[in-house]
TrEMBL record:
Keyword Membrane assigned: yes
Transmembrane segments: 61-81, 87-106, 113-131, 137-155, 167-186
Superkingdom in the source lineage: Bacteria
Keywords (A to Z) from UniProt: Membrane, Signal, Transmembrane, Transmembrane helix
Pfam families listed in its UniProt record: HupE_UreJ
Descriptive protein name: Urease accessory protein
Membrane is among the record's keywords: yes
Organism for this UniProt entry: Paracoccus alkanivorans
Signal sequence region: 1-20
Entries under InterPro entries matching the protein: HupE_UreJ
Length: 187
């Protein structure tokens, strides 16, 4: 019963975590560095991408994170410039669910399908970072959010390599997908 209440309390806080991205009001490098780890949606998606890259292995280990970060920077510039992106939040939440589900099901889509999807997700996350970023000091802010994103991808890769495609890795993917669904429902 105690676990139920703990889980319920944790789930109740998810909407606040998803929408509260503390730190970007500080501007510059630290604001960018804190943005990806300040919201559950960003944190979950970026770690899940690292898990997926580790699970697939081979060239996916570096191409998936690189595609995400490159597209994220382009999206960040678009968001910062004020270009519209209708549906950015649903796209970000979809990235959590889809990346988590791919890990949970140990799917290995062809890179020709996976890379554009990852780039779209990266662009959406970047757009949110850029749109919520500071009016001044874009470059240090962008370096900060790119560094934090790469660190989260590396964390996911490290966990994925440690678990070596086992049931626990798939369980983490499933939990990530469920957390994404909870964020969707709560939002």
């Amino acid at each position: 019963m105690k676990r139920f209440f703990t889980l319920t309390a944790a789930t109740a806080t998810l909407p606040g975590l998803a929408l509260a991205h503390p730190g970007h009001e500080t501007g510059q490098f630290m604001g960018g560095l804190s943005h990806p780890v300040g919201g559950a949606d960003h944190l979950l998606a970026m770690v899940a991408l690292g898990l997926l890259a580790a699970q697939i292995g081979g060239r996916a280990l570096w191409t998936l994170p690189a595609a995400f970060v490159a597209a994220m920077i382009a999206g960040g510039l678009s968001g910062w410039a004020g270009l519209p992106f209708p549906g950015v939040e649903p796209m970000i939440l979809a990235s959590v669910v889809i990346l988590g589900a791919l890990v949970a099901m140990a799917m290995r889509p062809p890179m020709a399908v996976l890379l554009p999807g990852v780039a779209i997700f990266g662009f959406a996350h970047g757009w949110a970072h850029g749109a919520e970023g500071p009016a001044q000091g874009l470059i240090p802010y962008a370096v900060g959010f790119a560094a934090a994103t790469m660190a989260l991808h590396l964390l996911g890769i490290g966990i994925g390599r440690l678990l070596q495609r086992g049931a626990l890795l798939r369980g983490i993917g499933g939990g990530t997908a469920l957390a994404g669904l909870a964020l969707m429902v709560a939002g």
